[in-house]
Design brief:
- This protein has 12 helices and 18 strands.
- The chain is an alpha/beta fold.
- It has 2 domains: 197 residues, Alpha-Beta Barrel (TIM Barrel), CATH 3.20.20; 123 residues, Lyase, Ornithine Decarboxylase, Chain A, domain 1 (Beta Barrel), CATH 2.40.37.10.
- α6 links the parallel β5 and β6.
- The longest helix is centred in the N-terminal third of the chain and has 15 residues.
- It is elongated.
- The chain binds pyridoxal-5'-phosphate.
- Pyridoxal-5'-phosphate (PLP) binds next to α10.
- The site of pyridoxal-5'-phosphate has 13 residues, from α10.
- Catalyzes the interconversion of L-alanine and D-alanine. May also act on other amino acids.
């Protein structure tokens, strides 16, 4: 199937931009009138902020969330002047120039950030809009109850901040039965009622699946745009896979029962075996934690990782692979296999995406008709 006659020893990271657009549209259809603010922090979950931002813009997205001012500046190159870019970590003194220069909108997470940004805002001609982030129980970023009261009483401060959205973030949304979801929803409504009427936003991808009361005027999906399962019930989710890490087969070997494989000889062949050495290792995002546990996909078959994953290489047991395995062939990591990999490695699908290495050749892919 994915057999390349000509190959490189370098792995390829294939990002299916059409799938990102389709995921955007599917989530948009799910939330109806609510807007989508795409969460594209950490270089769009490791996939590349500029091409991903451009694809989402092409699908109709006009609101984006990044973590830092630097990420916002980079994203601006991809999405042009007409998209709103919010900076989740908020404003800091050293980021002032970048925030103003790239026309980024800071999320205000504390009274300290509010006072700092009000002072900046009062100095400039057209101060950017902001979003006010309320902490409703996660105890991560956001104004707490006392700070909220302080802000609600200080009309001048509120006006200087020019708030366009009031937002909060859910701690336990993947598990719909967790009582914390309803508690946070109630706390959010109560907090918002203290403030002047402003559009609201609460849900990440998982929050979208908690249903309409969680959608408000904007949802902020990230992982669902990039094909990762967000909830404990992935069957209900509308996203399809986006990312494939394709490792070229560099060598195929036959080993005898009793021989060992890889660093520290952590694997001993129980029988005569055929193994494939493929060109992607932990530097490329195949976690060491998958050593002797994980699998890759070759010829639509799951093939086990044997021995310890190395920096640049992974060794696969292809004894059972039905078709010929030869140099230049391809082993697939991620793809529809992403959730399995995160379970086996005891990690998050989010982490597996953002840990994808910088060394991969990046292939921003549009499926050809015959592949579909
Ligand atoms: C990362 C993040 C999101 C997106 O979360 P997903 O689980 O990837 O959908 C939304 N809001 C905030 C505040 C975030 O930090």
């Amino acid at each position: 199937m994915i057999n390349q006659p000509s190959y490189s020893t370098r792995p390829t990271l294939r990002v299916d931009l059409d799938a990102i657009k389709a995921n955007y549209t599917a989530l948009k259809n799910k939330v109806g009138a609510a807007k989508i603010g795409a969460s594209v922090k950490a270089d769009a979950y490791g996939l590349g902020a500029v091409p991903v931002g451009r694809a989402l813009y092409g699908a109709g997205c006009r609101i984006f969330f990044v973590a830092t001012a630097g990420e916002g500046k980079l994203l601006r190159e991809g999405v042009g002047p007409n998209a709103a870019i919010y900076v989740l970590n908020g404003p800091a003194p050293r980021d002032k120039g970048v925030l103003l220069g790239a026309k980024l909108k800071p999320v205000i997470n504390s009274i300290e950030q509010a006072r700092f940004w009000a002072s900046v805002s009062n100095e400039v001609n057209e101060p950017p809009y902001t979003a006010i982030h309320i902490d409703t129980g996660m105890n991560r970023l956001g104004l707490n109850a006392e700070e909220l009261t302080e802000l609600s009483r200080d009309k001048k401060l509120w006006k200087s901040l020019n708030p366009e959205w009031v937002m909060s973030h859910l701690a336990c949304a993947p598990d719909a039965s967790n009582p914390m979801n309803k508690a946070q929803l109630a706390a959010f409504r109560k907090a918002a009622a203290q403030l002047p009427l402003t559009p609201l936003s609460l849900a990440n991808t998982a929050g979208i699946y908690l249903g309409k009361p969680y959608h408000f005027q904007m949802v902020r999906p990230g992982i669902g745009l990039f094909g990762g399962a967000a909830t404990t019930k992935p069957d209900q989710e509308v996203s399809r896979p986006v990312v494939s890490l394709l490792a070229p087969v560099l060598q195929v070997k036959y080993i005898k029962a009793g021989e060992t494989v890889g660093y520290n000889a952590t694997f001993t062949a129980p029988r005569d075996m055929r193994i494939a050495i493929v060109g992607a290792g932990y530097a490329d995002g195949v976690p060491v934690a998958q050593s002797n546990k994980g699998t890759a996909i070759m010829h639509d078959m799951e093939v086990p990782i044997v021995g310890r994953v190395s920096m640049d290489l992974t060794i696969l047991d292809v004894t059972e692979a039905r078709l010929t395995v030869e140099t230049g062939g391809v082993a697939l990591f991620r793809g529809a296999h992403l959730e399995t990999e995160s379970q086996i490695g005891d990690t998050l699908n989010y982490e597996l995406l953002v840990r994808l290495g910088q060394r991969c050749r990046r292939d921003y892919w549009k499926p050809k008709k015959e592949d579909a």
